[in-house]
Amino acid sequence: MAASEPATEIICQEPEVDFMLLDRIINEDFGGNRETMIMMMQAIQHEYRFLPEPALRYLSQSIGVPLTKIYEVATFYASFSLIPKGKHILQICTGTACHLRGSHRMVEHMIEKMSVSPGGTTEDMKLTLEVVNCVGACAVAPVVVEDEKYYPKADISTLDKFIERINAE
Amino acid sequence: MSQPSSAAQVADEVRRIISPADLEAYRRELLTKNDPNAPKVIVCCGTGCQASGSLDVIDAMKKAVAEAGWEGKVVPRVKRTGCHGFCSRGPLVVIEPMDLFYQQVSVDDVEEIVKTTLIGGEPIKRLLYKPPDSKEPVQRVAEIPFYSKQSRIVLKNIGKIDPFNIEDALTHGAYQALAKCLSSMGPRQVIDEVMNSKLRGRGGAGFPTGLKWDSCARVEGTRYVICNADEGDPGAFMDRSLLEGDPHSVLEGMAISAFAVGSNRGYIYCRAEYPLAVRTLTAAIKQAEAMGLLGDNIMGTDFSFKLTVSTGAGAFVCGESSALMSSLEGKVGRPRPKYIRSVEKGFRDSPSNLNNVETFANIPDIIFKGADWFKSYGTERSAGTKVFALTGNVHNVGLVEVPMGSSLREIVYGIGGGIPNKRELKAVQTGGPSGGCIPIPAKFLDINVGFGKLAEVGSMMGSGGMIVMDEDTCMVEVSRYFINFLVEESCGQCSPCREGLTRMLEILTRITQGEGREGDIQLLQEIGTFTNSFSLCGLGTSAANPVLSTIRWFPEEYEAHIREKKCPSGVCKKLFHYEIQAETCTGCGLCRRKCPVQAISGEKKKAHSIDQSLCIKCMECYKNCKFKAIKVL
Amino acid sequence: MKIIMDGNEVAATSGQTILEVARANGVRIPTLCHNDALEPAAMCRLCTVEVDEGRGPRLVTACNYPLRRDAQVFTNSERVRAGRKLIIEMLYTRCRGSELLEELGREYGADFTRFAPNDKQCIMCGLCARVCERVGGKTLTLSGRGVEITVATAFDRASEFCIACGACARICPVQTIKMIDEDGERRILVQGREASRVKLIECVSCGKRFGPVLDLKEINERAGDSKVPPPNQGVCPECSRRNLAARMAERHFEQFETGEEG
Description:
The complex is a heterotrimer. Chain A is an alpha+beta fold. Chain A has helices at 5-13, 19-29, 37-48, 53-63, 67-76, 96-100, 103-114, 156-168, and strands at residues 88-93, 127-132, 144-146, 149-151. Chain A folds into two domains: 5-76, no CATH class; 88-168, 3-Layer(aba) Sandwich (Glutaredoxin). In chain A, helix 2 (19-29) runs antiparallel to helix 3 and helix 2 crosses helix 4. The two termini of chain A are 30 Å apart. Mean pLDDT of chain A is 86; it is low at 1-12. Chain C starts with a strand and ends with a helix. By secondary structure, chain C is α+β, with helices and mostly antiparallel strands. In chain C, the strands form three sheets. Chain C has a five-stranded mixed sheet with strand order 2-1-5-3-4, sandwiched between helices.
């Protein structure tokens, strides 16, 4: 989970964080309440598709929670990312039902085809591959979720079509 | 909440309920306004059906109905509902009042449904459900074994009401039980009724709900009522369907609990992976508050109860109560190292009553219909019903509600329709990643579901995931899968869980790769027993169950992997190969055509063979052979 | 309340933890993640004992289990010893060469060859992060989860919040955290990674570098009015002592002289 060296570089390249927006999230949407910090961070991540360091520093000052505590939360919960995600996010569900129906083979396929590891992003920043634990659609396993759109009973060909689409962009 | 409020359709003029009696008056008013026998087209928009495209179907349906000529006929209402449960057949469409059940409906079918069924009154045969091994389609919902063999108490409204429409919920009786509490019961009476009902927590541990409420009510301080909607077990989606399909039953259950324990503040901790559930809940709370059914001075009384939805951020361990409460406080969800119960010191170090979604959903009916009615379901020790998410290698995948004490075989065969692809049942896994595999029918012909019974055989009730495994499932690999899941989801703070899981995964991985050593089984048992007894929280103290239960019931599979370097089920790639049995092969050539790497050759109508140096063990030939001529060796 | 510990009745007051009672009565229970100055975290689980409060024996951690009713405590039962042995063996794989673990290993008959090494140079007792939160600059924290859990600073970089107090280095039971004063700087290294680098202050009196330059505001706030006049804050402890001694001697001498003359 630790933010490694290249991550730091990418963070530095990021466009500036909009502090007005952060103020709106922190103070208006959540009333500056420390207990809602996780939801504030989700809202920040929703805006930037990851958690930019300057935004977390600002959050720390705004609600008076030490930066280390915010970092701890950011690294503890699986949905938070400290590094920018790709333009498209492909989630492969590896919940039990999906696993029994071969979702691990789809993960292997993506790793091989796109040379990207689970949780990682392709060099061209087009795709982030995520392996998730159960999206609750076990009945139509195996499921892949492409940018929040569900693909039921997915297989290798579903993935190949997806790869074709993003390569064509 | 930052959730988009598009879903919250609060009517312009809201009728405020001014007394418990006023609720009943309003309900009657709604019933006379909306004829229950009016024609309706119900489109299931649960997650499963949505994944299969039901949102497109409902849009097309609305358009087609609006454009059709009705010539004096009553225009049917197109209605979206939560999950009907029969997810593997989605998208599902039910036509009322005929009770017609259409399955796997696509946008292309919509026009025909409008013309033939809605206007013409005739069923469309090809959209009807055909049970496995039967050629005759079933017309009505009530005739489908998947539904007719269930006892739907908790799920009774799901698939009937529009979750975004509180009036629809009111006509189906929502908030009647709360009105009963407020008009004619005291907090003590409510607790007694719940105690008397013998309801046990549906989150997994099975603690008597009434007893928990009673303890919480006895502790002084600001009390909180919290709903655990952090359904993290992979393969479980009961709570999700409840929240998405009938949110008011959960809200009402929480309000009743708050009334009983003396609280006016509640939280629902919901998984962030369930965005639809969060939207449904937020909308439902907003609508109920607007009508005076939640919030300040509920139904004109001096009882107030404010509810907030809080979302998790992806951590299985947050299903553990003390971790959940930490997370609710905006901190990391690590279980607290304290020998103190959360009913005494929980959220904000205050007395907190935490129950699971399904537990709360059971409450309204227990109060409204009474404990004795509730106890008429289930067994002496485990009253009521349990909702299971039936998944895995079974025909009818979906949500299943059965009385406690139902037989596992009946669930798998009667409701689930048996095992597809002519395979044999090998085991049923219950209790999520910390549950166990029950060898049915090999070691037990049958087992009844109940808290005690499942624990006896080394599994547990858990929150209700039920995964059916057929003969092609490798139990060593299954246990490796669950341990791998827990390795990632353990919070990592206590050493027995963190280190024990790491070592178990290491050993299981080497066994599945053919590098198992003599003594590995004993070592797994030693570490497993240790982890289960020395860990800090509930996750750790049940983490080794998948390993211990598979060793207990399937030792021969472990031995085959370790001693003979064979995977009898044909899953661990390094430990098996496929061979075509010359005597059974008919030479149909299907496997040859299916093989993606051209490893199979043979002349037509003569036995085929596999070139082992090319085979990638993808299972395509094995899966597709109609004559079971391909063997795992 | 009657507490019987390993067969002997011992003195205890209600609410005391098993560990407190054991220590007061000379019974040794091993611990790794415990420090009297900090809240128990019960993370290492090494202090696990069996307790029977009338409903049969069960395993609890001594560091945080409060005794409130009659109980029998078994601090060294077979079950307890077997578990401790495994904890030591597994933690040793993370931290080979640790004298503390080797000594414990001898006590519990650990076999350090059973598990493959997994060198992390840290047993994840969490003491450093907890002491940092309690007395330091809230610089160190547990990061990540599951088997990937580590001790880290925010964003894994040298922290600007560290007050270089060195409490983490001092409390670490396996000496993974190093505090190095050289070239006018103090560096704190956690598992070889730099967690902080702070300039050392030069003694205005003798010129020796003696402590980290930092904003003392927060420390003074927490310590209350320290009664140290600001000019003296730039003097090293030795000089401070010497100067004070000199002043006292001077004053005493003066007094004595004036007294005799008067």
